[in-house]
Amino acid sequence: MAKLFTNTHEWAEVDGKSVKVGISNYAAGELGDIVFVSLPSVGDKVSYGESFMEVESVKSVAEINAPVNGKIVAVNEDLDAAPELINQDAEGTWIVEVELDGDVPADLMSKEDYEKTIK
Questions:
Q1: Dihedral class, residue 16 (left if φ above 0, else alpha if ψ from -120 to 50, else beta)
Q2: Domain 8-104 indexed as CATH 2.40.50.100
Q3: Long-range contacts of range 34-39, CB-CB < 8 Å, 24 or more positions apart?
Q4: Which single residue of 52, 58, 67, 107 has CA 20 to 30 Å from 19?
Q5: Of 93, 113, 87, 101, nearest to 21 (Cα)?
Q6: What is the distance between the terminal CA atoms of the chain, rounded to a whole angstrom?
Q7: Residue ranges of the domains in the chain?
Q8: Percent of the chain with pLDDT over 70
Q9: Per-residue confidence (pLDDT) for residue 119, from 0 to 100
Q10: What tens digit of pLDDT does each residue of 85-97 get?
């Protein structure tokens, strides 16, 4: 499963109708030390491109946008006690899992294409 990226620095790992969502290493680096993740609730609906949660760092608060349309089916509760897991491995730490509603948006990028946008 390849990760696909948004131009707002989220990633989506698609496996059939299951999509794990997180933020890019670049976003985590820009944020600095993450101190809090406002996890949404299981059952919440998310819409592509719309903010559905926040990640707070010592420097700022960042809105996280949904990379797909769907419904949240799981949240990474480990982040309640250890939000710094995102700093340690942002692209290996999922934040929520979404049940995909419809198709994967066509404008999501491969890792290679995403990296060209942040250079």
A1: left
A2: yes
A3: 34/83, 34/84, 34/86, 34/87, 35/83, 35/84, 36/83, 37/79, 37/80, 37/83, 37/86, 37/95, 39/75, 39/76, 39/77, 39/79, 39/80, 39/95, 39/96
A4: 58
A5: 93
A6: 24
A7: 8-104
A8: 100
A9: 86
A10: 999 999 999 999 9
Judging by beta carbons within 10 Å of its beta carbon (0-12, 13-18, 19+), is residue 61 exposed, middle or buried? exposed
Confidence of residue 101 (pLDDT cuts 50, 70, 90): very high
Reported as a pLDDT band with limits 50, 70 and 90, residue 54 is: very high
Question: How many other C-beta atoms are found inside a 10 Å radius of the C-beta of residue 28?
Answer: 24
Model confidence band, residue 28 (pLDDT cutoffs 50, 70, 90):
very high
The rounded mean pLDDT for the chain is: 96
Query: Which residue is associated with the tokens 């819409």?
Result: 47
Query: How many Cβ atoms are within 10 Å of 90's Cβ, its own excluded?
Result: 22
